[in-house]
Give the backbone structure.
Amino acid sequence: MAWLVFGILTAIGLMLLMRWLSLTPANQAKRTLAWSLAGIVVMMAVFLALTGRLAWAGAAISTLIPWGMRALRAHALWREARRYFKNGERQAGGQQQAPPRPGQKRMSQDEALSILGLKPGASKDDIQLAYKRLIQKMHPDAGGSDALAAQINQARDVLMGK
């Protein structure tokens, strides 16, 4: 009977935790969960030490370390896949134009303004700010493509008069 009550209370606690996580900003939830997990580990260690079962803690930790390492690798793969598919959706939207080919005519002012998201008469500081904002998102090292980075560079060069 005690296990049934414990199971029901655990289920209720998990549902409340999930609700709290859905309503809390990510940074605060991450920080709170990390401190909570550390507190639980310390309380378990104290409990095991007081009941004379601390050797079990060592065995449990040595067993859980490989699983923790696998979980970290799986999390890294998940983040990489999420970034890949996010970039794929952005590029598949059809909003970007094809990159200029060698020998093709130079980009017009209107095209350059639309690529950088600026209005006619933008100052050099506005052009530089828009360029930096876009190149940070579309640079090949940040998950963008070479073609998009080249197009952004060409748009900046056209608007800066280079």
